[in-house]
């Protein structure tokens, strides 16, 4: 009898241990990063963009993916609070951080909680409202201007945008990235998120239309350079238009986060462009075409992969792109540019996947690919500040759908 009870006790303990392990980070089979990919991961971690622990702990069990104000607010706060602690430890003016700052500004507005906005004001003052760039800052370099302009538009004060305006006034007269560099100012698709909101908000702040005109001129040049009118997606840059550069399955390389930058950028440009502006339809058409394409390649779990047209080669879901797809589609539905019956299910599936599969108990958002220009491998726990910034902006737009 004693042996029977001992055997039963061991079995119970084994089951409990197995259950506890199962409650930790989900067991997922995935390819390991190559040496070159790992070098980028290590560099990103050294630069305090984020991290990728082997075990990030259990997934969150206290969140609902329901599209309600209360539930979205809870998700947004949980992720934002986790990121805010990390952000305030390591401040920087680099683009990876500035995307996060823009996310906190949106989180503050969406939740009504001033602590996120107050933290950004503290950072901006610490940076003395400056950029990290040299004489000719690129789109990444000026992206911190989104935060400066948001703070200015809430409480105007000249010093908040003086340095930024000085740089924009230099750039506006250039036809290329910089003197003696023939590339377009926005030669890579990421730039369509980083720069346009800065220029359009400067137009709002100053009342000068020339800043908005610059956006429409440059976006059209980048569109002509990078937009694939067959696939309805953007090449990350001209290197990916090379017919010899292909996914393992032979299809063109379209990168999740690259398309995400454009989708969220379209939402921002449309939000900042007057309703009667003749340029609007140009952006609406791109939003509609890209949304239709992305909806058609969403997987059965509601997710997308780092290489959009070859999910088998990149089996892990990629969340930074997914969040920005939600941002763009939610904006389209909220403003009547996308059919709600068609796209709400796409958005709901994507949001459910993010909330259920990628947010950890402490608030970490995982599944974010490290920096780069093309698909790569990473751990399920990978979390980087720019991906969280995009997620916060998406949640803020999604909350408007709940209000709608």
UniProtKB/TrEMBL annotation:
Cited SUPFAM superfamilies: Six-hairpin glycosidases
Single GO term (MF): hydrolase activity
Keywords, ordered alphabetically: Hydrolase, Signal
Pfam family, one: Glyco_hydro_88
Keyword Signal: yes
One biological process term in Gene Ontology: carbohydrate metabolic process
Position of the signal peptide: 1-23
Name under which the protein is recorded: Glycoside hydrolase family 88 protein
Source organism: Pseudoduganella lutea
């Amino acid at each position: 009898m004693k042996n029977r009870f001992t055997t039963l006790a061991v079995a119970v303990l084994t089951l409990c241990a197995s259950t506890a392990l199962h409650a930790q980070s989900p067991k997922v089979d995935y390819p390991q990063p190559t040496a070159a990919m790992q070098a980028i991961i290590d560099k990103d971690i050294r630069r305090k963009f984020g991290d990728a622990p082997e075990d990030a702990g259990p997934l969150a069990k206290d969140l609902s993916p329901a599209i309600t104000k209360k539930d979205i607010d809870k998700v947004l706060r949980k992720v934002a609070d986790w990121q805010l602690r990390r952000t305030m430890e390591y401040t920087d003016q680099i683009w990876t951080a500035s995307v996060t700052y823009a996310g906190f500004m949106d989180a503050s507005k969406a939740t009504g909680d001033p602590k996120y906005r107050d933290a950004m004001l503290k950072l901006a003052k610490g940076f003395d409202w400056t950029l990290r760039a040299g004489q000719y800052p690129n789109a990444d370099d000026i992206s911190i201007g989104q935060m400066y302009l948001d703070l200015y538009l809430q409480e105007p004060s000249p010093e908040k945008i003086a340095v930024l305006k000085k740089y924009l006034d230099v750039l506006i007269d250039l036809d290329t990235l910089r003197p003696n560099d023939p590339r377009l100012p926005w030669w890579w698709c990421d730039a369509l998120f980083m720069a346009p909101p800065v220029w359009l908000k400067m137009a709002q702040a100053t009342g000068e239309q020339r800043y908005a005109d610059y956006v429409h001129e440059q976006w059209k040049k980048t569109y002509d350079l990078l937009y694939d009118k067959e696939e309805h997606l953007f090449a990350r840059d001209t290197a990916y238009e090379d017919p010899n550069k292909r996914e393992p399955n032979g299809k063109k390389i379209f990168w999740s986060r690259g398309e995400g930058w454009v989708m969220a950028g379209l939402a921002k440009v449309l939000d900042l462009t007057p309703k009667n502006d003749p340029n609007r339809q140009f952006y609406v058409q791109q939003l509609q075409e890209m949304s239709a394409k992305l909806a058609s390649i969403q997987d059965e779990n509601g997710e997308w992969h780092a290489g959009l047209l070859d999910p088998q080669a990149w089996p892990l879901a990629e969340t930074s792109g997914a969040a920005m797809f939600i941002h763009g589609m939610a904006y389209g539905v909220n403003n009547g540019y996308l059919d709600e019956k068609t796209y709400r299910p796409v958005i709901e599936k994507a949001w459910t996947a993010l909330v259920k599969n990628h947010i950890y108990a402490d608030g970490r958002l995982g599944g974010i690919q490290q920096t780069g220009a093309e698909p790569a491998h990473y751990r399920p726990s990978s979390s980087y500040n720019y991906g969280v910034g995009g997620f916060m902006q998406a949640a803020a737009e999604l909350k408007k759908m709940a209000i709608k």
